[in-house]
Amino acid sequence: CRALRASGCDELAIGVESADDQVLKAVNKLETVENMKRAIQLIKASGMRTKTYWMTGLPKETWFSIELNKLFMKEVKPDRWTLSMFAPFPGCDIERNPEKYGVKILNRDYSLYSNFSKSFIKTDVSSNEELNQHYQEFYKYLVSEEWKK
């Protein structure tokens, strides 16, 4: 991080996706929540700004996952964030093997997938309606900036 900062880099982004280790494991993220927290600490310590990328609507996501996301934001306080909804684009493993992930794809009209705030799946733990509600709940929390307090 110090070398990046010295070279002129002023912001680093991390694809957190979810602050629920169960979700990360389910989608083969090969990262842990603690590792991502540590990475953000290192980025901040070097003097760079941090940005987190989030994705709701992933396999194994529950309301508890959304609460973990909120706690993560409150703890690490990144400078910026981006939130998207998972979409099973052609070629990704979840699209090719939905049953392996406990997913049922409800709509395969890929032209609709550019709406990154709407779910096109349901999972073995959350309905399509719940996944959409997860997005809305987390989005409202992020824009409220309550996590900055």
Compose a concise summary of this entry.
This protein is α/β, with parallel strands linked by helices and about 150 residues long. Helices cover about 40% and strands about 20% of the residues.
User: Widest sheet: strand order?
Assistant: 1-2-3
Multimeric state of these chains? single chain
Secondary structural class: alpha/beta
Largest sheet: 3 strands, parallel
Uncertain segments of ≥5 residues (pLDDT<50)?
none
CA-based gyration radius: 16 Å
Order of helices and strands: HEHHEHEHEEH
Strand portion, in percent? 15-25%
Question: How helix-rich are the residues, as a percent range?
Answer: 25-40%
Q: What's the pLDDT, averaged over the residues?
A: 97
How many helical stretches? 6
Distance between the termini: 26 Å
Shape designation: globular
Using DSSP, what is the number of strands?
Answer: 5
